[in-house]
Amino acid sequence: MKRFCSLLVFAVIIPFIVFCPAAAAPAKAPSEYKVVMIVKQSDPWFDDMTLGIEKLKSEMGINAYVLTPESGDPALQIAIMEDLISQGVNAICIVPNDPQAILPTVKKARDAGIIVVTHEAPGIASEVNLDVEAFVNAEFGALMGDAVGKAAEGKGEYAGFVGGLTMDTHMEWYKAAVAAIKQKYPDMVNVSEEPFEDKNSIEVAYDKTVELLKAYPNLKAIFDCSAHGSGVAQAVKDKGRGDIKVVSLAIPSMSASYIKDGSMVHGQAWRPADAGYATCYAAYLLASGTAVSTGANLKATGYENIKVEGNIAYGYAPLVFTAENIDDFHF
Amino acid sequence: MRDLMGDLTGRIRHRRVNATEGILAGIILLYCVMVAAVNPAFLSVETLFDIVRSSSTAVIVGMGLLLVMLSGGIDVSFMSIALFGSYVAAYAMIRLKIDSLAFAFAVSIGLGTILGLVNALLVNWLNLPPFIVTLGTQNLFHGVMTTFISDKTFGAGVIPSALSKFGSATLFTLKTRQGVMGLTAAVIPMSIAVLLTWFIVSHTLVGRGVVAMGNSPESARRAGFNLLKLRLFAYGYIGALSAVMGVVYISQVNAVYPNKLVGSELMIIAGAVIGGVKDTGGRGKVLGVILGITIIYLLNSTLIFLGLSSSWNNFFVGTLLVASVGVTSWQNRRKNRKNLLFTE
Question: Among A241, B147, B256, B275, which is least packed by CB within 10 angstroms?
Answer without folding.
Answer: B147
